[in-house]
Amino acid sequence: MKKHSILLKLLMCAGVALMGFSAQADEVKGSAAAGNGKVWLCTGCHSIPDYRADYPYVYRVPMLGGQNAGYIATALSEYKKGERKHPTMRSIATSLSDQDMADIGEYYAAQTASSPNNPLK
Fold it and tell me: Which residues cross the membrane (predicted)?
């Protein structure tokens, strides 16, 4: 009986591991070069040092340069789904595909203080 229990647990762990591998295979890979042409709308707010949006409430707009690519893509996805609440970000995110979000994330992750593409990040 104990051998069957251990075998069952091993099979369950293997199944969970395989599900993780298949999820990674479906993951979209971003491109910083492609993202360069997609961030034009982002720079209107996110490239202004100490910018504060005043609608729907006073909100400090973060600089995105150097942020983790996955974090940015996930945040955009959450705005698109309505899980994050900001009307402007939601309207922008709803126009983006998963590939767009991954590309934008990679673009901003590649930015440093000395990056020539977007010195204000």
Answer: none
